[in-house]
Amino acid sequence: MKTQPSKLLPILIVFAATFSALTARAQTKPWVAPPTAKEVKNPISPEPSTLKAAKTLYIANCAPCHGTNGKGDGPAAAALNPKPADHTSAAVRNETDGALFWKISEGHTTMPTYKTIFTPAQRWELVNYIRTLSKPSPKDHQAR
Ligand code: HEC
């Protein structure tokens, strides 16, 4: 019985080292939505009236970090690490609607969780609004 702690110690060290390596990797890895969330289809088609409502939500709630034009350059952005996503970027354009909806719902690091704040319809409309912020490029693959 007396020898057990010294036998356990190397195992604990290996475990702790592996765990901290995994956590460090998780922090530097890009934020990826789960495959099931990516496949969810957007039930709301973009209409002028709902896009207008989503723009109002976006300016009031998202622009402080993501910027009025979605470039990730809002007044709060300078203080944040990681930086708020650039909603006009190819990376965001190439995300599926389902992935963006999941990210808006769940939040990550300083990106808030909106599933308790906005209805699902409002979150889908925000996805549609984000789509209007960037111009598609022929190089984009068809993720939608
Ligand atoms: C307090 C600052 C802040 C606010 C407010 C905020 N965001 Fe974010 N957002 C972030 C940050 C930071 C990230 C990057 C998070 C990460 O990678 O860990 C992000 C990432 C995202 C992403 C993921 C983009 C991608 O493809 O990875 C989406 C979509 C998004 N935000 C939408 C929104 C919407 C819509 C709103 C308003 C309803 C909003 N955000 C409000 C800070 C914010």
Supply the key terms.
mainly alpha, Cytochrome Bc1 Complex, Chain D, domain 2, globular, binds heme C
Write the layout of secondary structure elements.
Blueprint: H1 4-28, H2 35-39, H3 48-61, H4 63-66, H5 90-93, H6 97-106, H7 120-132
Helix pairs in contact: 3-7, 6-7
Heme C (HEC) binds at residues 31, 61-62, 64-66, 76, 80, 82, 84-85, 91-92, 95, 100, 103-104, 108-112, 114, 126.
Would you mind describing this structure in some detail?
It is a single chain. This protein has 144 residues and is mainly alpha-helical. The protein has a domain at 33-132: Cytochrome Bc1 Complex, Chain D, domain 2 (Orthogonal Bundle). Helix content is 52%, strand content 0%. The longest helix is centred in the first third of the chain and has 25 residues, at 4-28. The chain is globular, with a radius of gyration of 20 Å. Heme C (HEC) binds at residues 31, 61-62, 64-66, 76, 80, 82, 84-85, 91-92, 95, 100, 103-104, 108-112, 114, 126. The site of heme C (HEC) has 24 residues, from helix 4, helix 5 and helix 6.
